[in-house]
Amino acid sequence: MLDHIQATTHHARRGAVKNAFRYGVDYVLSDLGPARPRLFSRNRFNLWSLRDERHGGPRDEGQGVAWFREILAERGFPADQAQLLLLTQPDLLWFRFNPVSFWIAVIDGTPRAFVAEVNSTFGQRHCYFCAHPDFRPILATDRLSAEKLMHVSPFQTVAGQYHFNFDLTDSAVRIRIAYENGTQGVIATLAGPRRAASDGSLLWAAVRRPFGGARVLALIHWQALVLWTKRAPFLRRQPAPERLLSDNDRLQMPGE
């Protein structure tokens, strides 16, 4: 299975210095199986591609879906009953950068657990595991919270919390992440319809939004320049988190 999510992302900063923007982005939702269009490959070069070493573990040293299956098993999740999916921006030719990808465990058509795999422009990565204690379905109205542990933006401190609303249906993806730290914060959304990827849709996306991850990285730096001109407080690079993965506030490890 490979779905092409022609999505829109919207970011809105609140607090003393406000800023907002909206861009189109291309994501894929994949079960990492063999069936896919000719213009898309796994672990080899193509117009669009996914590589296991990009996901599931330390940055550029990933283990792919095997990593996700392992951390699910450590938390007592019945991974053998689930469909394991990756929602991410794939590589376009040589260009790549993923601010955030999502590993998703689905049972009976509903998400039961997910990992937000967050990458910074500073070369750091931290992953946030989110689920209910009993792994019941995650509804669009549910709010799963996690402590912010990684320096992502030079204009935000490493403090506060992320609050995730996660909605995955047969027809669409809708994700809302609210970062809150006192009176400061950011609302980020990702939303788009689910459609089976085709050579036509992938080729059109490459023409409409060329340079893939390089475009994303350029837009991030452009918005940083906008905030700098607005005199937003600037924070230099902070140390990387000591651990790669953390669990959301509502999850308790088995036996605790």
Describe this structure in words.
This protein is mostly beta strands. It is 15% helix and 40% strand. It is built from three helices and 14 strands. The strands form two sheets. It has an eleven-stranded mixed beta sheet with strand order 10-11-12-13-1-2-5-7-8-9-14. A three-stranded mixed beta sheet has the order 3-4-6. Mean pLDDT is 91; it is low at 251-256.
Question: How would you summarize the topology of this molecule?
Answer:
Elements: E1 2-14, E2 19-30, E3 40-42, E4 48-50, H1 65-74, E5 83-88, E6 91-92, E7 100-107, E8 110-119, E9 125-131, E10 144-147, E11 161-168, E12 172-181, E13 184-196, H2 199-208, H3 212-229, E14 245-247
Parallel strand pairs: 3-4, 9-14
Antiparallel strand pairs: 1-2, 1-13, 2-5, 4-6, 5-7, 7-8, 8-9, 10-11, 11-12, 12-13
Query: What gyration radius follows from the Cα positions, in whole Å?
Result: 18 Å
Strand content: 35-45%
Overall mean pLDDT: 91
Given helix and strand content, the structural type is: mainly beta
**Structural shape:** globular
Q: Compute the number of strand runs.
A: 14
Strand order of the largest sheet: 10-11-12-13-1-2-5-7-8-9-14
Topology as H/E string? Answer: EEEEHEEEEEEEEEHHE
End-to-end Cα distance: 37 Å
* Helix count, DSSP H or I runs of 4 or more residues: 3
Report the biggest beta sheet as strand number plus sense, adding barrel if it closes: 11 strands, mixed
How much helix, percentage-wise, in residues?
Answer: 10-25%
* Low-pLDDT segments: 251-256
